[in-house]
């Protein structure tokens, strides 16, 4: 990474910074799980018992975010990853660092299998996950629907850790 980026767990002081990042992500036009987050939504991330959130911080600005959400009951061995980076901070290794941090946290929580859903048209993200050893297993057609993008197809990636 060219600039000094620190990856750490989300804390209560990040609420407004993550809400600002969420706005930047929505303006970018690449669909992601972190669009439209208010400060209250960020607080909900902090309080979710089955969710761990990491942020990438440059100076005092949150420039990236990632979550791992563990399944419940018979899916407690499985967790789903979501990652997003501010458009002007992409291609610096931030998403890679967030994913690797989430993998470390997952291992410490005895999670065995990670899953990521990636928009079929998000080639940079798909390449990153493939480089990190995730296997493309299937495509979910019309998995999500938005006014801006219509029906969104997602590639399903898995990695046993």
Care to describe what's here?
A hairpin with a 7-residue loop joins strand 3 and strand 4. The protein is of the alpha+beta class and 161 residues long. A seven-stranded mixed beta sheet has the order 1-2-3-4-5-7-6, with helices on both faces. The mean pLDDT is 92. The chain has four helices and seven strands, in the order E-H-H-E-E-E-H-E-H-E-E. Helix content is 29%, strand content 37%. Helix 1 packs across helix 2.
Q: Main traits of this protein?
A:
4 helices; alpha+beta; 7 strands; about 160 residues; globular; 7-stranded mixed beta sheet
Number of helices: 4
Low-confidence stretches: none
- Amino-to-carboxy terminus distance: 25 Å
Q: Give the DSSP E fraction (strand runs of 2 or more residues).
A: 35-45%
Supply Rg: 15 Å
Strand count, sense and barrel status of the largest sheet are:
7 strands, mixed
Topology pattern, helix = H, strand = E:
EHHEEEHEHEE
> Helicity level, as a percent range?
25-40%
Average pLDDT metric: 92
> Strand order, biggest sheet?
1-2-3-4-5-7-6
Choose one word for the global shape.
globular
Structural class: alpha+beta
How many DSSP E strands?
Answer: 7
Please give a quick description of this structure.
With 161 residues, this protein is of the alpha+beta class.
